[in-house]
Design a protein that fits this description.
binds glycine; 437 residues; 4 domains; 14 helices; Dna Ligase, domain 1; 30% helix; Rossmann fold; alpha+beta; D-amino Acid Aminotransferase, Chain A, domain 1; binds adenosine monophosphate
Length: 437
C-alpha cells in the first residue's frame, strides 16, 4: 500500500456520527491550528454550536451515501474524515472513502470485523493465545442448547454481530442461558447479528477500557478508563450504552499496562498484519481484570463512548497532528500526553432509558454548569430547534465532564454540574468510580 502523503493544512474536517464522542472529538480538533472548520454528519445540538451539521444518516453504507459524502468533501475542501461509530466502519465506509489527498481515520471493513464479528475475534484470540474467556460458537440452536445444558458454570450469550451494544446477555443459570439462546436464535431479537452466537464462560472482576491508536504498525496506548454499563447506582439494573466513565483508572498500573500491551494489543495488531489488514484507527480492548490476569471481553475498533470524552478533556497537544500521524503511518512521531488530573464523565439520560423514553424535552442550565472552568458538557442526544431551543433527542442526552485533582473531586464537580442542568425526566448515576473509591 502506498504511504499516504500529508494533507495541506489548515484544512476542514468531517466527523461521522451523532453523539457525545463526536462532539468531544470535534471540540478537540477545533483547538488545532491545522483545522479550519469542523463538519458533523449528522451531529447533534452541541456539534451545531461548534461547527456545521450535515444531514446525512451514515449508519448504513450505500453508494448514494458514499457519493453524497464525496461531493460534500469536494465542495467543502475536507482533508480529513474521522469515522466515529461501528456501523459505518463495519459497512466499509472507510474503504470506500479512501482517496489520495484525503485522510480517513478509522479501520477498513476487514479491520472493523474484529468488533462486528465476535466469532471471528474469538478465533483470532484463540489462534494467538490472547487471554480471553473460553467460548464456543454456534449457528444451530439445538447444538447451543445441548452445550449450555451440559455446563455447570454461568455463561454469557452473545450475538456475534453488531447489536448496538445490547447483544451480550450475562446469565446466572441454565434457565437464563436457554432463554438468551431463544431470544437470539429463535425470536431473532438481534436480527442477522444473532444468527451466530458465541457462548462464553462468565468472568468475574473489574472491567476496564483500554484504547490504543494504531497506524498499521505502531501502537500508542491511551490512558485507561472504567465505564459503568449498568443503569442503576451500585451497578444494578439493565445494561446501557454506558452511564459514565472516569479516566485514568488506578486499576491499571504501568506493569499491568505493559502486560496488556504485550499479551493483547501487540499480538492482535500482529495478527491483523499477517492477514494483510492495514489497521489505522482505534483498537479498543474491553478487559476483565480476573484473578488469573486481564482477559479480553470484546474488541471495539473505534473510539469508546463515553471514554473518549474523558480522554479529549485530558489530552494535551494537537489532536489533528495525532490523527494525521496515525493515518500517515508515523504514530511513533506523535506528541501525545495527558494532564495528570482525573476526569469524570456523567451521562444525563432521558427517563426510561435504556427502555422507551420521550424526546423533545427542553434542556436548560448548561451555561450555568459550565461556569465552573473545570466543567465541560458534551451533547450526546440533543437537537437544536430552529428557534434556538435545545431539546432532548436520545436516551443518553448529555455527557457532563469535570476535572479534579482526585477522582472524588472530579465526581463531585460533575455531579454538581448535573444538578444545575434540567430537562423533564432527567436521571444520572451519582456514583461513577465507586468501585475504586
Ligand atoms: P460485550 O458486548 O462483549 O462487551 O459485552 C457487554 C458487557 O457484558 C461487558 O461490558 C460485560 O459487562 C459483560 N460481559 C461480556 N462478556 C462477559 C464475560 N465473559 N463475563 C462476564 N461479563 C461479560
Ligand atoms: N463505552 C463502551 C463503548 O464505547 O462501547
Amino acid at each position: 500500500m502506498p504511504k499516504p502523503t500529508p494533507i495541506e493544512t489548515p484544512t476542514n474536517v468531517l466527523i461521522i456520527g451523532p453523539g457525545g464522542r463526536e462532539h468531544a472529538l470535534g471540540w478537540k480538533l477545533k483547538q488545532s491550528s491545522k483545522v479550519k472548520k469542523v463538519f458533523f454528519a449528522p451531529g447533534n445540538g452541541g456539534t451545531a454550536q461548534i461547527g456545521q451539521n450535515v444531514p446525512l444518516n451514515c449508519d448504513t453504507v450505500s453508494t448514494k451515501l458514499v457519493d453524497e459524502i464525496n461531493y460534500f468533501c469536494r465542495d467543502h475542501k475536507v482533508g480529513m474524515i474521522v469515522i466515529g461509530p461501528e456501523d459505518p466502519l463495519a459497512g466499509g465506509l472507510a474503504d470506500r472513502l479512501a482517496k489520495p489527498g484525503r485522510h480517513v481515520f478509522g479501520p477498513t471493513k476487514d479491520g472493523a470485523r474484529l468488533e462486528a464479528d465476535k466469532a471471528y475475534a474469538k478465533d483470532l484470540m484463540r489462534a494467538c493465545r490472547i487471554p480471553t474467556a473460553d467460548a464456543k460458537t454456534f449457528k444451530n440452536h439445538e447444538q447451543a442448547v445441548a452445550y449450555v445444558e451440559n455446563r455447570e458454570t454461568p455463561v454469557v450469550v452473545k450475538a456475534s454481530g453488531l447489536a448496538k451494544g445490547k447483544g451480550a446477555i450475562v446469565t446466572k443459570n441454565t434457565e437464563e442461558a436457554l432463554d438468551a439462546l431463544r431470544r437470539c436464535m429463535v425470536d431473532k431479537e438481534f436480527g442477522e447479528a444473532g444468527e451466530t452466537v458465541v457462548v462464553e464462560e462468565r468472568l468475574v472482576g473489574q472491567e476496564v477500557s483500554i484504547l490504543a491508536l494504531v497506524d498499521g504498525r505502531n501502537i500508542f496506548v491511551l490512558d485507561p478508563s472504567q465505564d459503568h454499563k449498568q443503569q442503576g447506582e451500585g451497578d444494578t439494573g439493565p445494561n446501557t450504552g454506558g452511564m459514565g466513565v472516569y479516566c485514568p483508572t488506578p486499576l491499571i498500573d504501568d506493569k499491568m499496562m505493559a502486560t496488556i500491551e504485550r499479551e493483547v494489543l501487540v499480538p492482535t495488531v500482529d495478527a491483523l498484519r499477517r492477514d494483510g489488514i492495514d489497521f489505522k484507527g482505534v483498537l479498543y480492548a474491553g478487559l476483565m481484570l480476573t484473578a488469573g490476569g486481564p482477559k479480553v471481553l470484546e474488541y471495539n475498533t473505534r473510539f469508546g463512548d463515553p471514554e473518549t470524552q474523558t480522554l479529549m478533556m485530558r489530552m494535551k497537544g494537537d489532536l489533528y497532528d495525532v490523527l494525521a500521524a496515525c493515518c500517515e503511518g508515523r504514530l511513533d512521531e506523535a506528541d501525545l500526553t495527558f494532564t495528570n488530573t482525573t476526569c469524570v464523565c456523567v451521562c444525563m439520560c432521558s427517563g426510561g432509558y435504556p427502555g422507551p423514553y420521550e424526546k423533545g424535552k427542553t434542556i436548560t442550565g448548561i451555561e450555568v454548569a459550565e461556569e465552573d472552568q473545570d466543567v465541560k458538557v458534551f451533547h450526546a442526544g440533543t437537537k437544536l430547534e430552529k428557534n434556538g431551543d435545545l431539546v432532548t433527542a436520545g436516551g443518553r442526552v448529555l455527557n457532563v465532564c469535570a476535572f479534579g485533582k482526585t477522582l472524588k473531586e472530579a465526581r463531585d464537580k460533575a455531579n454538581a454540574a448535573c444538578d444545575k442542568i434540567n430537562f423533564d425526566g432527567a436521571f444520572f448515576r451519582r456514583d461513577i468510580g465507586f468501585r475504586v473509591m
